[in-house]
Amino acid sequence: MAPKSRSVPKPQMTWLKYAPTLLAAAALAVSLFYVTTLSTRPNIQIQRSSDQTLVSSVDRYEKEAEAILRRSLLNRSKLTINTDKIAAELHEAFPELGDITVVIPLVDRRPVVQAQPIPPALALSTQKNGVFVIDAKGRAIAKAADVDSSVRDALPLVRDESGLDIEVGSGALPETNVAFIQEIFGQLAGKQIVIESISLPATTNELRVQVRGKPYFVKFDLQGEGRFQAGTYLAVKAKLERDGVTPAEYIDVRVPEKAFYR
Question: Is the pTM of this model over 0.85?
Fold first, then answer.
């Protein structure tokens, strides 16, 4: 008697019941991957006072930061980006930004660039390298040609006659000299005295200021007290004008509490 044939049950597709879990896990993995990726369009945050001028526009900072981020694929991930390197490259491009911090947001994909700008103090015209914008610490932070004219034209222009050889990012003047020049400029401007030109001759520690409408220039000592020397000049100027005397060459206020003229 022939054996009876038996039907073999078809295997049930048990994995289907795990499909929702698998899909959720895949979606989570994709989401996590997306969250860890970074955009090359940074968020620039310039921390400055309301009346502080910038050497460059925020748009220019943003474009440079974006170009730096695009240079390496490592900058596209929160796990591999080197924020210190990016900050260093930005500081090399824009010394006037001072302290720069690149922050990676927890959820957002745009890197945040936070910068504390150093305000420009004066413009320095050199015989070798052209005109630079100088900060309060005496560093050359930008070529004057790269600075908006509204910023550049508001700065005291100092002409160097000693043959300084400087470049952007390097030290140009001692910090004390910058403070002295700003003091003299401010004191005279406060008395509505218009300065025609300011120069640093080859003579050590001397500052020469040409007053508009006068045939003479004023000699100041960069190592002295700017406020006192400016006060001495103003007093001498007032007395000479009362006496009807106009020096033909200079007024020298470098010696404390004394003045000489020719």
Answer: no
What whole-number distance in Å separates Cα of residue 62 and Cα of residue 45?
Answer: 10
Give domain limits for the chain: 43-116, 120-261
pLDDT digits (tens, 9 = 90+) for 133-157: 999 999 999 999 988 888 888 899 9
Q: How far is CA 125 from the centre of its chain?
A: 19
Residue type present at position 23:
L
Cα(29)–Cα(214) distance, integer angstroms: 77
Cα 77–Cα 83–Cα 84 angle in degrees, nearest 5: 155
pLDDT value, residue 39: 92
Give me the CATH topology for the region 120-261: Rossmann fold (3.40.50)
Kindly state the average pLDDT of the residues 210-220: 96
Top-tier CATH class for 43-116: alpha beta
Structure tokens at 198: 């300011």
Q: In this predicted structure, what is the pLDDT of residue 20?
A: 74
Using an 8 Å Cβ cutoff, are 144 and 130 in contact? yes
